[in-house]
From TrEMBL:
It comes from the Bacteria. This is DUF1858 domain-containing protein. It comes from Kineothrix sedimenti. SUPFAM superfamilies: SP0561-like (SSF140683). InterPro entries: DUF1858, ScdA-like_N_sf. Residues 6-63 form the DUF1858 domain.
Amino acid sequence: MSNKIIDFNLTVYELCTADPGIIPILAKAGFTDITKPGMLATAGRFMTIPKGAAFKKLDLENIKLIFEKHGYTVKEEKK
């Protein structure tokens, strides 16, 4: 399995532009609005995955697990 890195410090727009395969994973993780036309180009330009998870009240740890199951390594800034 290839080891892809997803940087949670980047915006959703930046991530999905670099790797469009992220869009269905985000939808599966609870970000269903990401598939709506225009959402990626509007909210996605300033929203990061952690900010979006907080806004939609989604469990960030579960989102990380979903990405890991799809072969991604999650990179995030430690606070």
